[in-house]
């Protein structure tokens, strides 16, 4: 039962991250003018990170006694989401507000790398169910 819940939550985590990163964000910026798209994305990201945190934490807990490696990977996703949400995201917003394009680009690139690493880690966990 716990393994099934872990599989479903891990799949939700993976799919949600992929959909948000490659679907929702891209759609918002292509469908809305920049003065509307930027605040919309800014308001959505805290919820995205909460989703990533809770989904990965729940899946990690479900796998804790079944598969320590996968549980550890999911726990690492959850734990690394906290500073991303609480430190990196506000720093990105501050750089954007200050019109510091170089700092924004650097910090945004870092957030993209973190998200891609989370997606790859979740994909790895999902392949371990096979």
Give a written overview of the molecule.
With 130 residues, the chain is mainly α. It is elongated and about 50 Å long. The relative contact order is 0.15. The mean pLDDT is 96.
Beta fraction of the residues? under 5%
Number of strands: 0
Listing every helix as H and every strand as E from the N terminus to the C terminus, the arrangement reads: HHHH
Q: Low-confidence segments, ≥5 residues, pLDDT <50?
A: none
Q: What Rg is obtained from the alpha carbons, in whole angstroms?
A: 16 Å
Structural class: mainly alpha
Q: Give the helix proportion (percent range).
A: over 70%
For this entry, give a set of tags.
4 helices, single chain, 90% helix, 130 residues, elongated
Put the structure in a nutshell.
This protein has 130 residues and is mainly α. The chain has one domain (2-127). The chain has helices spanning 2-31, 34-63, 68-97, 101-127.
Secondary structure elements and their pairing?
Layout: H1 2-31, H2 34-63, H3 68-97, H4 101-127
Helix pairs in contact: 1-2, 1-4, 2-3, 3-4
């Amino acid at each position: 039962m716990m393994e099934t819940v872990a599989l479903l939550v891990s799949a939700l985590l993976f799919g949600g991250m992929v959909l948000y990163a490659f679907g929702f964000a891209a759609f918002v910026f292509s469908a809305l003018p920049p003065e509307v798209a930027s605040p919309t994305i800014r308001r959505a990201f805290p919820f995205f990170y909460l989703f990533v945190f809770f989904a990965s934490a729940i899946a990690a807990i479900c796998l804790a006694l079944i598969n320590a490696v996968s549980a550890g990977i999911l726990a690492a996703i959850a734990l690394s989401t906290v500073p991303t949400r609480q430190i990196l995201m506000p720093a990105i917003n501050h750089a954007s507000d200050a019109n510091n394009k170089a700092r924004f680009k650097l910090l945004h690139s870092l957030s993209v790398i973190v998200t891609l690493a989370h997606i790859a880690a979740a994909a790895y966990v999902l392949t371990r169910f096979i």
